[in-house]
Amino acid sequence: MRNKGLSYWLFLAPVLLALSFVVIIPLLYGTFYSFTNWDGITAEGFVGLSHYIELFQDSEFLNALKFTTLFSIASILLINFFGLSLALIVTSKLKSSNFLRTVFFMPNLIGGLILGFIWQFVFVKVFASIGDILGLQFLQGWLSTTETGFWGLVILMTWQLSGYVMIIYIAYLQGIPNELLEAADIDGASAFQKFMKVKFPLVAPAFTVSLFLTLSNSFKLYDQNLALTDGGPFNSTQMVAMDIVRTAFTDNEMAYAQAKAVVFFIIVAVFSLTQVYYNKKKEVDL
């Protein structure tokens, strides 16, 4: 840091200012208000840890946290599986690979609310029509139960982010030296053996990045949850972000909502940093 010149800090200053005003300062203010009776306008009275004690006895918040955790696990696994699969397809020297990359990436360009309404139509109208034609009862009322609502959200999230994660895997797959693949061919390795013994270990940095992004995005999901199920039925598909927003702006309990947000931030940070730490240890230097 001692060798950094004035130009370095001038270029870095806008980013540091934006990070400070948008993330760090609001986080500090929010943490402070979580220990008060803040109502969105004034913060009268210091209540200590009472909000934090209350939220760990709040069944609705705990159910939302459990649902969010299960949803994140399922989404992370499926998004990375399909993202890597798509990356392998478009890097396999197909003539239409550039076209396929565009098609696979396009869902990521659609806004979360619009995606939610599109898939709500698919799950409610299209699935019901298919169910009527084929006589499949399980396709009726797809979003009316907790289980189908859960998988509806997972399908939506997987469809949206698989193409984005694909781009990350493509960058690392294309960076694998051809000499290694040629040596594997000479040794008589099959396509599966080349993937497991050569490609898979060398894309470990991509796993670190993609797992971090999918984990953080899955935990913070709000707009798709709002548009697709609105937390129903009976708040059983309500995720933590939605629970926090409703506590703040529907119940008008700003300080309590802020306490939930602080706890949620800590949980996401711990999961994300732990994942990055363990994945970094497994990376293979090219």
UniProtKB/TrEMBL annotation:
Top-rank taxon, per record: Bacteria
First-listed, main subcellular location of the protein, grouped into a coarse class: membrane
Topology in membrane: Multi-pass membrane protein
Localization annotation: Cell membrane
Entry's transmembrane regions: 7-29, 70-91, 103-130, 150-172, 261-278
Gene Ontology CC annotations of this record: plasma membrane
Keyword Cell membrane assigned: yes
InterPro entries hit by this protein: ABC_transporter_permease, MetI-like, MetI-like_sf
Chain ranges of the ABC transmembrane type-1 domain: 65-275
Entry keyword set: Cell membrane, Membrane, Transmembrane, Transmembrane helix, Transport
GO biological process: transmembrane transport
Family recorded in the similarity comment: Belongs to the binding-protein-dependent transport system permease family.
Protein name according to UniProt: ABC transporter
Organism annotation: Gracilibacillus halophilus YIM-C55.5
